[in-house]
């Protein structure tokens, strides 16, 4: 399962949070972004509850204010269709 997670964080904590997120084995990509959200996280996990566990971990992080999770739909484009 793959998912994109949008994250709002405490002002000034973006760089530290991104560094921490890059250490998670499920993380494929993480970027700071401008706009409504501060960080875009792409994850992949074989565990059916993996995305939920990561979101719980994020929501308990002291620098994370809010998250928004979008699960990838297989068969609707992107590189995931070739797996």
TrEMBL record:
Q: Which organism is it from?
A: Candidatus Nitrosopumilus koreensis AR1
How far does the signal peptide extend, from start to end residue?
A: none
What is the name listed in the Swiss-Prot or TrEMBL entry for this protein?
AsnC family transcriptional regulator
In this protein, which residues make up the domain named Transcription regulator AsnC/Lrp ligand binding? Answer: 5-73
Give the superkingdom in one word.
Archaea
- Chain ranges passing through the membrane: none
Gene3D superfamilies noted in UniProt: 3.30.70.920
Q: Which Pfam families match?
A: AsnC_trans_reg
